[in-house]
Specification:
- The complex is a heterodimer of chains A (306) and B (274).
- Chain A is mostly helical.
- Helices cover 74% and strands 1% of the residues of chain A.
- Chain A has a single domain, classed as MetI-like (MetI-like fold).
- In chain A, strand 1 and strand 2 form a beta hairpin.
- Chain A is globular and about 70 Å long.
- Chain A starts with a helix and ends with a helix.
- Chain B has 274 residues and is of the alpha/beta class.
- In chain B, the strands form 2 sheets. In chain B, strands 1, 2, 3, 4, 6, 7, 8, 9 and 12 form a 9-stranded mixed sheet that branches.
- In chain B, a hairpin with a 4-residue loop joins strand 10 and strand 11.
- The longest helix of chain B has 15 residues.
- The chains are: A mainly alpha (306), B alpha/beta (274).
- The interface between A and B is medium-sized, with 27 and 33 residues.
Chain lengths: 306, 274
């Protein structure tokens, strides 16, 4: 019997055949998915003692474990402000640089600059932190005539450098990935170069650039080591609130400094885990927002090609 | 049959992966210099691996209690609540040296004339009621108040004498740092800072203040500390469990031997045995 005959008489392949390979891939997929769920579940379970005993008082501004006070607001505030500063600096710089690289520079320059930036992304965060402690914080203190440069602003500044590669390379990818047909059509309509970019390239790349920004934002929220060394680790809201030239604390820097010191199972430990849960929820919502944006982009491209 | 072979192979591989018989030590960065130097010398002489990590007294205790380490380093006493967390584990503290915690200021402040403060004045600085050096006879400059993480041994000992409790709130703090190392860097970088350091960490850029105790003014000299006359002093402890391994026990014995005690003295602390 020839191969063709055999194929002809074989029954149609069942949709979910449980051969070992299928099992392997489905298993991997479920494992990865359940890990995310498991982390959330663990955090929720570990937060329970704090929620039960400290409850609503955790939404205050006073953190003093020896007195049973576990207010996490200064940390949440610090995390959000540091992230906002980093994004305000890095997003325009990164996107503008990406536009320049993709639209004006040659492929060779583009590859060279991107390789350099990806190298920047590979530097361990502790190295950034040490640079921050020994140089950046000293500069900031000098420029603003501060007593100490270990302030919220310095942390944001350092973070902006750390997330710049993510924003730049992903935005550049997004702009370069805009189909040639689109730019050519626009050129055929007699548009100038800038007009082509503004009305044809940018709208198509925009959701992807936003996605890049969200990814960078996630990194900014999660960064621990570098921030921990230069933010001053003061569990207090700045006064006035917008004074970013005062010391502060982020959720991650708090965790980095205190988790090792708190006894496992204590309310103190549980309160720290609760702040971690808040951080994960913030990061997760941002990731989901990024997913939705990506999905919308795919739809737009599909429409354009019809 | 084939399955059995695979299981045996896996079992053998996993056994080979079990951790080496090293003595694991972690905890206070104040005790660390003594233990890590002693560990180097001890390892070279005996061939026994000793791994020493920092992390603070609190971490030293909780890691030991959880069985993650063999020996914890603590620059303060265990607290009642720490013991209560692990009722099933019996932990003993063993002194391997003595130390003084000294209020320190940036050299610029010291040279400008602020060389002696009373505990009450220091307490006011940490509470935030005194905010400028001019109030204390120094230059007209805001005070950079450097505090330490609440569970740090150095802070417990310092605050007990200065503010009367181990973990007080310090509303005047501008920075909260961790190890002696980190605190030392911040003090050197500033020209108007006050902080607390173990006597072994003082140098030309960081000057220890003389304490005005009312009846006497006490300088943070090693002789004074050695004679037991410095008001803010403490034992440097290592803590061990009842079920300590023989390898760890012999390292503990080494730390308390004359050879081991020499390392306490070299690190700038005071020996507890001759």
């Amino acid at each position: 019997m020839s191969f063709a005959d055999a194929a002809a008489v074989m029954p149609p392949r069942p949709r979910a055949r449980r051969d070992s390979f299928t099992l392997w891939i489905t298993g991997s997929a479920w494992l990865s998915a359940s890990l995310a769920g498991l982390i959330l579940l663990t955090l929720a379970v570990q937060s329970a003692p704090a929620i039960r005993q400290a409850g609503g008082t955790m939404l205050s501004v006073q953190w003093l474990p020896s007195a049973g006070q576990y207010g996490i607001i200064p940390m949440v505030f610090g995390s959000l402000v540091v992230m906002a500063i980093a994004m305000t600096i890095a997003l325009p710089v990164g996107v503008m640089a990406a536009v320049q690289l993709s639209q004006i520079k040659s492929l060779k320059t583009r590859r060279f600059v991107k390789a350099l930036l990806e190298g920047l992304a590979g530097i361990p965060s502790i190295v950034y932190g040490l640079i921050g402690v020994s140089f950046l914080s000293v500069f900031v203190a000098d420029i603003f005539d501060l007593q100490t440069g270990r302030v919220i602003f310095t942390a944001g500044l350092l973070l902006s450098v750390m997330i710049l590669p993510t924003i730049l390379t992903l935005s550049e990818d997004a702009i370069s990935a805009v189909p040639n047909a689109l730019t050519q059509n626009a050129a055929a309509l007699g548009l100038y170069r800038f007009e082509i970019f503004r009305s044809a390239v940018l709208p198509s790349a925009a959701p992807h650039i936003l996605g890049a920004g969200l990814l960078a934002l996630g990194r900014a929220l999660g960064e621990t080591m570098a921030v921990m060394l230069i933010i001053g680790s003061l569990d207090r809201l700045p006064s006035p609130l917008w004074n970013v030239l005062s010391s502060g604390q982020t959720i991650t820097s708090k965790l980095g400094r205190e988790v090792g010191e708190s006894a496992f199972g204590s309310v103190h430990f549980s309160a720290l885990i609760f702040s971690a849960l808040i951080l994960v929820i913030i990061t997760l919502s941002l990731t989901i927002a990024a997913q939705i944006l990506f999905a919308r982009r795919a739809k737009t491209i599909g429409l354009l090609h019809v | 049959m084939k399955k059995i072979t695979v299981f045996i192979a896996a079992a053998l591989t996993l056994t080979a992966c079990s951790p080496p018989e090293g003595v694991r030590v972690s905890g206070s960065s104040t005790v660390l210099p003594v233990v890590s130097k002693a560990a180097d010398s001890y390892s070279a002489a005996s061939g026994q691996t000793v791994i020493v990590n920092a992390g603070g007294s609190g971490a030293g205790f909780s890691q030991l209690a959880q069985g993650l380490t063999d020996i914890g380093m603590m620059s303060r006493d265990m607290t009642a609540s720490e013991r209560a967390q692990y009722p099933d584990v019996n932990i003993t503290a063993i002194a391997i040296g003595r130390d003084a915690v000294v209020p320190v200021v940036s050299s610029e402040i010291y040279d400008a004339g602020v060389t002696t403060l009373s505990p009450a004045q220091i307490a006011d600085i940490y509470r935030g009621t005194i905010q400028n050096w001019s109030a204390l006879g120094g230059p007209d400059r805001d005070i950079l108040v450097i505090d330490k993480e609440a569970s740090r041994g150095t802070r417990h000992v310092f605050m007990q004498v200065i503010m009367g409790e181990k973990e007080p709130k310090a509303g005047g703090a501008d920075l909260v740092l961790g190890s002696n190392n980190e605190e030392q860097t911040a003090l050197v970088q500033s020209d108007s800072a006050i902080g607390m350091l173990s006597v072994a960490w003082l140098n030309d850029d960081i000057k220890g203040l003389t304490l005005d105790m009312g009846t006497a003014k006490i300088k943070p000299d090693l002789d004074v500390v050695r004679a037991g006359q410095y008001p803010i002093s403490r034992n440097l402890n290592i803590v061990v469990r009842d079920d300590i391994s023989p390898a760890a026990q012999s390292f503990v014995d080494f730390l308390r031997s004359p050879d081991g005690q020499a390392f306490a003295q070299d690190a700038g602390y005071i020996r507890i045995a001759p």
